[in-house]
Amino acid sequence: MENLTNISVVREIMERHGFSFSKALGQNFIVNPSVCPKIAEMGNARKGFGVIEIGTGVGVLTHELAKRADRVTAVEIDQRLLPILSETLAEHDNIHIINADVMKTDLKKVIAEDFDGLEAAVCANLPYYITSPIIMYLLEERLPVRSITVMVQKEAGVRLCAEPGTRECGAVSLAVSYYAEPKLLFNVSRGSFMPSPNVDSCVIRLDIREEPAVSVRDEVFLFKVIRGAFSQRRKTFANSVTTAGISKERAVMALEQAGIQPNIRPEQLTLEQFGMIADILLQT
Ligand code: SAM
Asked: Which mutation among 17, 27, 137 tests ligand 1's pocket best, with the greatest number of atoms within 8 A of CB?
């Protein structure tokens, strides 16, 4: 259906199906007509591609993806939306809806089964209650995708795209930089949604790297160090990394060996420096 950004049309469909928004599932649907075509176009929804969507709502983005890509597989947790989607997406024969929690879905298997011979990409207007866990899941799974293009809360977008070594940087920014090159694409005002959330949003694209940005001995240990370092924001690296089971003395020694001052804060460290510290800690 073309007019899924028309508020009266969406309300009529919802009422007819007895559907009401679930706040707990982060259901804020896009009603600004310019947003979904832009996400689809900037998110690699095109010939030769299969697109994974997370959270369909009434299918407003799904429709734009299906118009452009060869195949779309969408994972939607809310079973009440299925009869609505059968109606709103009826004109497309290239969409597969999976009624499941994305965090419990084997997306690698889905891509292998649904996108035979196609390149893959992820596009979504993410439910805000679970943004970071979903992004971490997509990255850590090392999905064979070209890009992950997602709408997130503006603040989350700034954090996700923050350069390591800058004030906004956190554990999730380092994970993003490790696996991908992040880009903030455009902002979306709160009035573009129904119901309207309390915050503005932005669309970011993570272009997945062929190889991680740094090479380390043990990736799991690197992220243990990063998570520990950022667990207590205002403390120095050597103090906060103790939460990862690394003593302050060992941490200071590793910093010294890496040629880094002992009172450095985690947000001042680059990904390369985290990699160096993690490798030194593994050997001592
Ligand atoms: N794509 C639609 C749009 O842009 O209007 C809906 C976006 S809405 C912000 C998020 C969607 O994700 C909702 O449809 C919600 O039911 C779904 N959702 C929430 N948690 C989910 C989960 N764990 N797995 C899959 N879908 C989920």
From this structure: 27
